[in-house]
Amino acid sequence: MKRLVDALFVLILFSQLPLSAIAADSYLVSVQAIVDSTQAPEGVVFEIVSKDKQYLDWALPETEKLSRQLRTRFPALDIVIVTHGAEQFALTKTQLANNAPLNSTLTSLSNSNIEVHVCGTHAERKGVEAEDFSKLVDVAAEGPAQINDYIKLGYVRIRIVKS
Fold first, then answer.
1. Which residues, 6 or more positions from 63, have their beta carbon under 8 angstroms from its beta carbon?
2. Could you give the angle at the alpha carbon of 43 between the alpha carbons of 40 and 46, nearest 5°?
3. What is d(CA 144, CA 131) in angstroms, rounded to the nearest whole number?
4. What pTM does this model have?
5. What is the rounded radius of gyration, in angstroms, for the C-alpha atoms of the chain?
6. Which of the 8 DSSP states describes residue 130?
7. Which helix (H) or strand (E) holds 82?
């Protein structure tokens, strides 16, 4: 029942969006659907999760590209990124020191006021401390909970998936 109520809420919230733009997950919306909309959502939370440790080499630049599309349409749109799988460890200081392109993308995102969160719980389980991550990264208590907090604020979630 809650899922149905949530789905109806999203349908009302995005009544300007074509129904085909709303994914099976009631909070998932495509970038194109937002760009085609007459009204911006409160914000967008990009979710990145993978078992592939190098996934951010593709996913972070892709997210930056999608963010530019969104900001072209809605310049004041708040955009955040939450990464909470094995890929998040590419954002440690040690890994970024050996990956100039990824470090450059992270810096560019920060300069564009796009906050990047990683999952502190996952990091802790792998023996990685919050201080091990770049200063450009926020270590959230839990990645999925961080995403849910944004959704409660009216943000829409977009999953970054390599096709």
1. 46, 48, 81, 109, 160
2. 120
3. 21
4. 0.82
5. 16
6. G
7. strand 78-83
- The residue with tokens 């911006």 is 40
pLDDT at position 28: 56
**Which domains does the chain carry?**
2-159 (3.40.1260.10)
Q: CA 141 to CA 158: how far, in whole Å?
A: 20
What letter does residue 88 receive in the DSSP assignment? G
User: How confident is the model at residue 163, as a pLDDT?
Assistant: 73
Eight-class DSSP state of 44: E
Where does residue 16 rank: exposed (0-12), middle (13-18), buried (19+ CB within 10 A)? Answer: exposed
Q: How far, in Å, CA of 18 to CA of 25, rounded? A: 15
Output the six-digit token pair for 106.
């992270």
